[in-house]
Amino acid sequence: MYWTDLLLSAAVGWSAFAIAVAATRWHRIALLPITIFALYRAVLFIHEITHRARRDVPAFTLVWNVLIGVPLLIPSFLYEGVHTDHHRHRCYGTEADPEYVPFGRRPPVLIIGCAMAALVAPVAFAVRFGILAPLSWVVPALRRPISERYSALVINPRYVRRGPIGLAGRVQETAAFGVVWASVGLWWIGIVPPAVFFCWFVASAAASGINAVRTLAAHRYDRDSGELSMTEQLLDSCTIAFTGGRLTRLADAGRVLVAPVGLRYHALHHWIPSLPYHNLGRVHRLLAATLAPDAAYHATVERGFSPALHDLLRRSRAHSGA
Question: How far is Cα 98 from Cα 222, in angstroms, rounded to an integer?
Answer without folding.
Answer: 16
